[in-house]
Predict the structure.
Amino acid sequence: MSFILTQQEADDLLGIEKHYFGNDLFTFPSLGGALRILLHSGDSREEFSFDITRSCIVLTKNTFQTRAKKTIVLARIDIGGAPHRNPDGEEILCPHLHVYREGYGDKWAIPVPGNFSKSMTVWQIMNEFMDYCKVIIKPIIHEELFT
């Protein structure tokens, strides 16, 4: 099933407080790995996914994203990858942030906002991205040796 959201719906979903209600402990994925964690709104009426994906070749390439309605990327941050070319031709260097844009989904990127710290480790970026996506009760994710 495919969903198309209005900008207001996407903004509202991104702004909803998200919670991890489980008891599982997660390990940050190893190179080439991925992790999907189910999140819910405080009233459990909305379901979200927090995803971590790591490159198997480029050690510094990581992606964190928050999805709604199972498939719609509300926000994604790309680290250590290639520059992104927006639909208007503008090139955005990595790291960059994708935020849902009506009619384009996650095809537009912007430079990482100033409220993210400048001395960013992957671990710090992940936690700041969860804050950006309003993940209030965070899952417990243990660092892997080569995070």
